[in-house]
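During the reporting period the student researcher (J.K.) took over the structure-prediction task from the postdoctoral fellow and processed the backlog of single-chain submissions. One of the processed entries is reproduced below for the supervisory committee.
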Amino acid sequence: MLNNEVLIDPRITKIAEKIKKLRLEKGFSSHEQFAWDNDINRVQYWRIEKGSNITLLSLLKILDIHKITLNEFFSDLD
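J.K. obtained the following structure tokens:
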């Protein structure tokens, strides 16, 4: 690990990957376009998909956009 790298908890990585999967399933190949279309700061959204800067409020906003519940989101995550 380099000095400026931060290890990301594997659970956060799974959450980030699922968020990216939801975006792709909606037909958005670009995280930027998804962010613009849903009034999310594009840099913040990019960080969320990379597993950094995920807040509960951000997660809830993304789930609302996709119209899924917390239970649905976490149902297939360990």
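The committee noted the following: The radius of gyration is 13 Å.
J.K. will present the remaining backlog at the next meeting.
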